[in-house]
Structure to design on (479 residues):
């Protein structure tokens, strides 16, 4: 470790011994591997990451241009629809007495007010998208200038600026939007109850919490096969960490009995595998560079350090086998085994076990879980359900669909920075979206997006969604 600079500055890894080195120093000498690092290696790494992020933002610009065009078309359609609604209202009012005509005028005013509000809201959306698009263009120009200057300080400053946060989209998910205006005649009782007659009814539909996430764009695909594999991989779960400034993708490979890491440094892609004696299942992040792995057989939970290569730190032996795992606090875990979800201490002792709710069996095969705002979201492939529960075991809500949506058992579950819940379905090749209260919204990813056999889900700090399929890890932007 560099003695003159902080750990936050470290963003390179020795290509021989894979230990972290300090890019702030022009030349770094590693005694253990006797490798010499020059400024060229630092520049190559930062160029790779900046170019990758620049291309990602270019795709965001294309997506936002499409969103702006679609919104403008919708504004045009609103105006045309307004004229059609007014025509129907006018015809109905002309067939009634003066009192009904007065009601028609009131409805006309309501229509005008609603359409003006809707148009203004959508115009605001257009302005926001155009502003964000300009920000991305400016940031792309900035990166182009830095890449053209080819100086280590400019490259390093731009690289660190991106890792510190970069350019983020503004969130409008909580803003309600009028989606349509309908005219519904109601003249059944016109002769009997004239004073209370509803000649027409204007209905506004809103884009509320059940609106779809934006369109997906595939950014990168990592193939999960390694030379050391004894068979084709069967990836189960995925997690993305930033280790010394290097994005590291960690996956469990059930078939090859190992945990794998994939990362890029010195403009080259690297991977490593930590062999296990038994099949691994799910991942949970314990600290910035530590992950926990559930091993239902032989009833163990391992802790590995990601460096970004993998090394074993500790092994916890539990009283029973757990498939899913999540970190509740620095001193407690949630784990799902056959028929129950348990809260454990860091030594593996059971603090609380949840099996039923209102005399109903809650769990059969709780193979995946995540923590959202202090609650545990449990995906149960046996029950075909998602259960949201507190750490004390109180059920908040359950999603247990019937019919076509209940045919395929669910796999991994995760939440996004916008509060949406995503649920993977292996057999039906799709990822669906739920609201925070467990209401079904619709499909987010399907085979049309290149998704086949999704199992693991994870959103990183740059709001990219990583989908772990059986053979590969797909990085997706939802903009």
């Amino acid at each position: 470790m560099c003695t003159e600079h902080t750990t936050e500055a470290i963003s390179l890894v020795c290509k021989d011994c894979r230990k972290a080195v300090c890019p702030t120093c022009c030349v770094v000498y590693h005694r253990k591997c006797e490798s010499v690092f020059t400024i060229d290696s630092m520049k190559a790494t930062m160029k790779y990451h900046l170019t990758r992020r620049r291309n990602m933002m270019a795709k965001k610009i294309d997506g936002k241009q499409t969103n702006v065009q679609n919104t403008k078309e919708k504004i045009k359609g609103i105006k045309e629809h307004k004229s059609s609604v007014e025509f129907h209202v006018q015809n109905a009012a002309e067939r009634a007495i003066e009192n009904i005509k007065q009601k028609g005028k009131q409805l006309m005013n309501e229509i005008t007010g609603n359409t003006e509000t809707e148009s203004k809201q959508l115009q605001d959306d257009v302005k926001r998208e155009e502003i964000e698009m300009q920000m991305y263009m400016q940031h792309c120009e900035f990166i182009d200038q830095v890449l053209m200057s080819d100086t280590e300080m400019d490259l390093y400053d731009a690289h660190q600026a991106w890792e510190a946060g970069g350019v983020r989209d503004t969130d409008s998910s909580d803003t309600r939007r009028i989606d349509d205006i309908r005219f519904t005649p109601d003249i059944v009782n016109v002769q009997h109850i004239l004073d209370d007659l509803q000649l027409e009814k204007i209905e506004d539909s809103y884009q509320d919490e059940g609106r779809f996430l934006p369109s997906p764009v595939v950014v990168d695909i990592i193939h999960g096969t390694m030379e050391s594999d004894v068979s084709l991989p069967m990836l189960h779960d995925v997690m993305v960490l930033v280790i010394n400034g290097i994005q590291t993708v960690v996956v469990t490979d059930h078939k090859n009995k190992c945990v794998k890491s994939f990362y890029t440094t010195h403009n080259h892609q690297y991977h490593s595998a930590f062999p296990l004696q038994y099949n691994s299942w799910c991942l949970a992040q314990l600290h910035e560079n530590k992950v926990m792995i559930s091993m239902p057989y032989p009833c163990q939970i391992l802790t590995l350090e990601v460096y970004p290569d993998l090394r074993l730190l500790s092994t916890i032996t539990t009283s029973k086998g757990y498939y899913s795992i999540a970190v509740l606090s620095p001193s407690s875990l949630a784990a799902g085994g056959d028929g129950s979800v348990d809260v454990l201490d860091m030594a593996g002792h059971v603090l609380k076990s949840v099996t039923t709710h209102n005399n109903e069996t809650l769990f059969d095969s709780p193979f995946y879980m995540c923590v959202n705002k202090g609650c545990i979201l449990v995906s149960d492939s046996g029950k075909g359900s998602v259960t949201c529960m507190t750490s004390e075991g109180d059920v908040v809500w359950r999603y247990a669909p019937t019919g076509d949506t209940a045919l395929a058992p669910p796999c991994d579950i995760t939440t996004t920075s916008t509060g949406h819940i995503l649920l993977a379905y292996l057999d039906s090749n799709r990822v669906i979206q739920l609201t925070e209260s467990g209401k079904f919204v619709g499909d987010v990813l399907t085979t049309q997006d290149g998704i086949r056999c999704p199992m693991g889900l994870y959103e990183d700090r740059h709001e990219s969604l990583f989908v772990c399929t059986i053979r590969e890890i797909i990085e997706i932007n939802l903009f």
Q: What stands out?
A: Residues 3-11, 24-32, 206-210 have pLDDT under 50 and may be disordered. The chain has three domains: 7-37, 58-206, 217-478. DSSP finds three helices and 32 strands in the chain.
